[in-house]
């Protein structure tokens, strides 16, 4: 079988551990022949992500906290200085205060709202702006969203608002960058047990609900999200941009699963 990402260089942001969706995407990208560049969020993650990166066969493992403009700029400058061309970038990053993912949404503080929107939505704009000049042959930018962007999901709260902003950033970025041959899309993934997901109150009930009601009668896993990421990042996805692709066992289509 031909490798779908042969000759392409992929920058993957958001690997924290083996359960990260970004880890599964990085694995699938390597399987498909991509050269991998992965980032970690500051010194606290450095050692773990370096070890994971070596396992993944990443050619570079680099620091980038996406709330720090200077770190994004330094990353872009370093890659530019080394003559790296990026063909595909994956943004698999989100954060909200834990208390904002358990109490009623109406109690969200101004600071909690700003933090969630900054890390989970604006950061896509910041990294797209910094990395687009390195995407000299065009390519793909991909981010991760969730159904809470368009429907009320109990306890998802401010993160749902951030994902709504993120999905609209995808459309505006796609429009701005399309002329340079850069496609921008999101995958809206079904619930998957990861470190971030564990921060959401009653997350296991969400998993049970999806398994009971989704057309496929089960949850999706990170490998299934990763295979869709391969498609969107490869030339097979060349006509797809400004889109949100659901990889959720069909749950988004269900009204009331009785
Ligand atoms: N797990 C799910 O059920 C699910 C479903 C749909 C969408 N998503 C989305 O998938 C993406 C990845 O989440 P995950 O579930 O793999 O969890 P995860 O905790 O493994 O990944 C979240 C990543 O965000 C990174 N991050 C947070 N703040 C950062 C910052 N300031 N700078 C750089 N990196 C930062 C973390 O280091 C971590 O690597 C998120 O956008 C999440 O909202 C997850």
Approximately how much helix is present in the residues? Answer: 40-55%
Mean pLDDT: 97
Question: What share of the residues does DSSP label as strand, in percent?
Answer: 15-25%
Helix/strand class: alpha/beta
Question: How far from one another are the termini?
Answer: 42 Å
> What is the architecture at the second tier of CATH?
3-Layer(aba) Sandwich
**What's the CATH topology label?**
Rossmann fold
Total number of domains: 1
Number of strands: 7
Overall body shape: globular
SSE sequence, one letter per element: EHEHEHEHEHEHHHE
Q: Figure out the total of helices.
A: 8
Q: Unreliable segments (pLDDT under 50, ≥5 consecutive)?
A: none
Q: Major sheet: order of its strands?
A: 3-2-1-4-5-6-7
Cα gyration radius (Å): 17 Å
Query: Which CATH class?
Result: Alpha Beta
Largest sheet: 7 strands, parallel
Per-chain topology:
Blueprint: E1 9-13, H1 21-31, E2 35-40, H2 43-56, E3 60-63, H3 69-81, E4 88-91, H4 110-131, E5 139-145, H5 157-177, E6 182-189, H6 195-198, H7 203-213, H8 222-233, E7 243-247
Parallel strand pairs: 1-2, 1-4, 2-3, 4-5, 5-6, 6-7
The structure holds nicotinamide-adenine-dinucleotide.
Briefly summarize what is shown:
The chain is of the alpha/beta class. Helices cover 42% and strands 15% of the residues. The chain starts with 8 loop residues before the first strand and ends in an 11-residue tail after the last strand.
């Amino acid at each position: 079988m031909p490798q779908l990402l042969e000759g392409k260089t992929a920058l993957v942001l958001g690997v924290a551990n083996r359960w990260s969706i970004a880890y599964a995407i990085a694995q699938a990208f390597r399987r498909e022949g991509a050269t991998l560049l992965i980032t970690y969020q500051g010194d606290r993650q450095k050692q773990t992500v370096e070890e994971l990166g070596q396992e993944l066969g990443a050619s570079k493992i680099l620091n980038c906290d996406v709330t720090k403009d200077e770190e994004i700029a330094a990353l872009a400058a370093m890659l530019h200085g080394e003559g790296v061309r990026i063909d595909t970038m994956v943004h698999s990053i989100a954060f909200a205060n834990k208390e904002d993912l358990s109490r009623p949404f109406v109690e969200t503080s101004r600071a909690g709202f700003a933090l969630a929107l900054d890390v989970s939505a604006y950061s896509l704009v910041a990294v797209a702006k910094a990395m687009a000049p390195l995407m000299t042959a065009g390519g793909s930018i991909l981010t991760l969203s969730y159904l809470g962007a368009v429907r009320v999901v109990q306890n998802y709260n401010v993160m749902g608002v951030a994902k709504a902003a993120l999905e609209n950033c995808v459309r505006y970025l796609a429009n701005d960058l399309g002329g340079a041959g850069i496609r921008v899309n999101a995958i809206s993934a079904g619930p998957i047990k990861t470190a971030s997901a564990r921060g959401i109150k009653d997350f296991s009930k969400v998993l049970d609900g999806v398994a009971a009601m989704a057309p496929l009668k089960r949850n999706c896993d990170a490998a299934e999200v990763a295979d869709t990421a391969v498609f969107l990042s490869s030339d097979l996805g060349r006509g797809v941009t400004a889109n949100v692709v659901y990889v959720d066992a069909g749950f988004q289509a269900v009204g009331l699963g009785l």
